[in-house]
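Practice problem: Putative pyruvate, phosphate dikinase regulatory protein
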Amino acid sequence: MTDTEIKMFIVSDAVGETALRVANAVLAQFPNIKNKNIKRYPFIASKEEMISLLHDAGLENAIVVATIVNSELATFAQEYADEHHILYHNALTELIHMIQNKAEVAPVEESGLLQQMDQNYFDRVSAIEFAVKYDDGKNNKGFPQSDMVLLGISRTSKTPLSMYLANKGYKVSNLPLIPEVPIPKEIYEVDARRIFGLTASPRYIMNIRSERVKILGITGSAKYSSLERVKDELMFSEQLYQKLGARMINVENKSIEETAAEIETHYKAENI
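Answer key — structure tokens:
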């Protein structure tokens, strides 16, 4: 048994399932290593994202296992890793070059082709990964890539709806709306037909927030759950929906399934 910690970053321009399997297959050869820490970075499509995660890998002294099919990005990642003394292995590069040289045919460089063997299943996996990565406005770059963008103030079920729709194969991102926080410019780049603004009555939201405050054990009056605050936030959000041309969806007293079905119906009707 060894106390050495092995950290691995799994990096891919698709879901990253192949890189993860390679890493786990190799780690299985070292049963005495019990301290393993694996982080997964799917849908890496830019040099900026690659630099950020490779920098973190260097700081954490992690091994990077990648499946990057884009030759430009793969070459950039390898050169950056070599320059900064980061342990980096692209599980596809060497074999792609071998087959390319043997067959004298260029690869198509399309990520995720293996998953097309069971497209429906892997579409859902990919969509769930996407929803997690771009949940709660974590990364503004996800908005233009989304099938659907959900906007709403706190307690309008943005995350549950995103995950439910992702399970149906849709790439969904969401953004919490707070009057004091500027709207990311990427939101204005999204086709209005893809944007859904969630809303409900002020008292409905207030009651849900009040229960949330109780659960969190917050005593005294909380501005977050006050009726006036909720009214201000709803006014701000609905004005934004009108400006964006977003479709408004009332979530009041509806199950996640009902609201998701309504969103999906409107989305399909637009024939995007």
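Discussion: The two ends are 56 Å apart (CA to CA). Students who identified this feature from the tokens alone can consider the problem solved.
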